[in-house]
Write a structure and sequence with these properties.
The chain is an all-alpha fold. The protein has seven helices and two strands, in the order H-H-H-H-H-H-E-E-H. A hairpin with a 7-residue loop joins strand 1 and strand 2.
């Protein structure tokens, strides 16, 4: 069995970053932002993450639990900074705040997000192929593909304009799913 403790901190970060990037890529793949669409897709992604916390693969389960812990730490740090803004003063905090402020009002880049997700996924799976049990690699890969598929299928999309029919997965979402599958050798 593969354990996260078998990897360095940078490698763990890489393994943990891929699922979030896949979720973000799937959410942005069709390039149609919208509150209800975002809510449906985020809910579908959250469901797949919750399922992973009780996954049959110990490795996928440990990744999901580590992600939950990472998110909890980020929320706690943000809450502490809100309660005591002076505690976050410093060069690094100021740089992070400036970078975050620059993002406000900027529309997401669907092509950039999907390309980043494909590359992060490829790198994480390649890392695991070199050092993890084959069963764990397959389970992790299938989990990433499931995240993307469930998010892509969460909200119907109109293809071709106003009078067109709704499809579960748009052409751009299917392209993203295909590129992701190719990146992991499927």
């Amino acid at each position: 069995m593969t354990n996260l403790s078998d990897f360095s901190d940078d490698e763990i970060a890489q393994i943990l970053d891929a699922p979030g990037a896949v979720l973000k890529g799937a959410t942005l793949a069709d390039g149609e932002p919208g509150g209800i669409r975002f809510l449906l897709e985020s809910t579908a992604g959250a469901k797949v993450f919750r399922e992973a916390q009780v996954h049959e693969s110990d490795f996928v389960r440990s990744v999901a639990v580590a992600l939950r812990a990472r998110i909890g730490e980020q929320w706690a740090a943000e809450e502490a900074a809100r309660k005591n803004p002076a505690a976050s003063v410093g060069v690094a905090a100021a740089a992070a705040a400036t970078e975050e402020a620059a993002k406000v009002g900027v529309r997401p880049d669907p092509e950039g997000a999907t390309a980043e997700a494909v590359e992060l996924t490829r790198a994480a799976v390649d890392l695991l192929r070199g050092r993890a049990d084959e069963k764990d690699v397959i389970a992790y890969t299938e989990w990433l593909l499931r995240i993307a598929e469930q998010v892509a299928r969460a909200a119907a999309t109109k293809e071709g304009g106003f009078f067109s029919r709704r499809v579960k997965v748009s052409a751009s979402e299917q392209d993203y799913l295909d590129r992701l599958a190719a990146a992991v050798g499927r």
